[in-house]
């Protein structure tokens, strides 16, 4: 188990450098001239333009640019944004907000997803099951931005139950609405996954054995059925955590959440390679770690799985 | 003003839009609007903004997000009132006999918000700092008319004193320009020309985060929370015409105007100065009695570059005129912008002093399908339009609404001229700039201009002068250049304006760009504040706003 974890962490190193190279190249290869855009289309003195190009190494060929970036990275210097701020400071400001939003969304979809999924799975074909199936299908079919704007208008403006947008410090209570919007589509998937998995395991031999042993229904459901049914759900949630941590560009935009999604979106549009590479590299690490945690959880859920 | 700059201007993406904006004092809205009287002057007003693109330094702030803050925490020699007329702020007098040598006297006893005195050196040092190449300030080209700019702005130059600026005594300095420029005074309210306290130069980076200014407001302690908000409180040391009538302004930073719109609807935000496209149809009913829709100093045009082979000589001139007459501007305004713009009748803006709505030759901007078709056929007789050639209009489509109106325009051109015209979509603004700057367009491109300061010349010289900084289409006409020069040498702004309008008559024949419409600002405000007046540049006069 320890060796397995260690090996996985070592794998992170090539993945990390590969990701920075790839992303740096992609930003480099996108057409357009970031410095020309900085002037907003107004004139710019040639000396100023040359100074800015030199400051961001944009006057260098790709390998030199990337080499300089790596050199700074080793000293934990992530570079500067076009507005002259340290990229590390910008990320440090945005990341806690995105993390909070992601955790809330994940908690929302896990709790309600598993709960509804279990009930629907146990009462297959009944009214509750059919209602949940149809509702989840509707949610999956509606794009996030529609859900977001509609909930913002209804809950935020017309009913006045919540503030339509999140204020600067992004407190927990103001993030509830964005978290619900963000988690809603995944919630539908979790419900369907749990339901399918539960109803399949209900007919498994070990469940019949457990029932025949005279165990209470509650114990059969919670300890035997649920525990075994959660493996596909955990796999899904792990991948989803990685995606949520990447910042939700659409949801953060609608609710004006100052998170990593907004940051990344703006940096891509303006061609700010330092920011894009730094953010994406962190996301890669988060993704790999989230997947590792999921793999380790398998062993906890299913004793037949062992890592050596 | 000689514009020999590499970078040329064009339509400006909303986010990066350049602003100018010292808002004026003694506003006319103030006297006519009785509802302001008796408003609560102690409450804090909230308003939308975008994250400033750079640290808050006068010569480095060139976009709206930072510009509107700078104009509140700084004041220059003059400011602009709601109509764009100049009002003295720190200047006691600005005198010139030849439009080339200016003597500027300052009011005495004025101070920055930290108590240090504002002297002639506060201006001269700040301008020298802004112009010098070694400081790499984005607005440095604004100083190019001052004598000695070419030396300090040369690449690698270590000099930072322009010979045209001389301090005479504590409250007097003189400015010598490289050539006469009749509208120089009009520029002095622009952000780039603000003074700086002597402490600013110790560490300009940290000063930019926490600037000390001399405007009607000052930045609150730790007032700039990046990507979140900028908090301003009234500056008690300010004595100018723009005295704050509220307890402060808190700018909330929005990346998405749709969410800002819902915030005003639920009264969580007081002022929104930019109704998003989704709200254009309904904002007047959503905000009955709490909205504004008025022209500001900006326009939208379509550049037809002079280097396109199909648009050369006499036939080319006819083709440009035919395209202009083939566009039904009013229909596009009605259908796509819900009537919230005004058809262009010249190359400038109706809010400017000297604007003339009926210049000789302006008929070419009126929709006339029959005349357009006839003109196009006449051009074809001289040199035929290449068979199968598509007339493309390039535009970045990351700015809201661009795609829709250009597609509509292309359809009108197709229908009325019998050629194929279409939008050439460009994904991002930075890509669009690179394409336009490369001078390798194979068709027309979307363009537009927002004034830096309220002057006719600002809409003409930088855009159509031979080799000018923002002359994207490489337009060049010696007769036009001569007229501009004559206008600049005029000894008064009025005499200059007359000549600038004469130069526009030449443009109306050549049509280096096809003027489309004048921009208008659509703003809304919450139930918590009284009427919000907007300035000549479309920026709210925040200091005039009172709470209910």
TrEMBL record, chain A:
It is a multi-pass membrane protein. CDD domains: TM_PBP2 (cd06261). GO terms for biological process: transmembrane transport. SUPFAM superfamilies: MetI-like (SSF161098). Its main location: membrane. Gene3D superfamilies: MetI-like. This is ABC transporter permease. It comes from Arthrobacter psychrochitiniphilus.
From TrEMBL, chain B:
It comes from the Bacteria. Keywords: Signal. Residues 26-42 have a biased composition (Low complexity). The keyword Signal applies. It holds the Pfam family SBP_bac_5. Residues 43-52 have a biased composition (Polar residues). GO terms for cellular component: ATP-binding cassette (ABC) transporter complex; periplasmic space. Residues 86-470 form the Solute-binding protein family domain. Residues 26-60 are annotated as: Disordered. The keyword NAD does not apply. GO terms for biological process: peptide transport. GO terms for molecular function: peptide transmembrane transporter activity. Residues 1-24 form the signal peptide. PANTHER family: ABC TRANSPORTER SUBSTRATE-BINDING PROTEIN (PTHR30290:SF83), PERIPLASMIC BINDING COMPONENT OF ABC TRANSPORTER (PTHR30290). This is ABC transporter substrate-binding protein. The lineage of its organism: Bacteria, Bacillati, Actinomycetota, Actinomycetes, Micrococcales.
